[in-house]
Amino acid sequence: MKLNKLFLTFVIVVFCVIFLLIIDFQVIEDLIIPDICAFHYGKQTSMLFDLFYGFPAAEGGHPSPTVFHFFFTIFIGGTFGFFVSKIILRKNDETIF
Length: 97
Description:
Blueprint: H1 2-32, H2 47-52, E1 53-54, E2 64-65, H3 67-96
């Protein structure tokens, strides 16, 4: 029984991490950066924006997510998945007993 709970927690955490990465890079990024070429003409960015997005030469000066952004998104998704799994497991324990 303990192994089933651990496996379910792992599956839910991985699902939430993948879901949040997809939402972040497909939806939220497009809302934050509607025109990636606007940064060619000296558009000013805040320090918070620079923390999550960089302007590497390999991308032609377009903003791209930093490593911190990637790990932060994984951390938030994993934490959310962990709490969701705890809620699901708590509800299952109440219905079984």
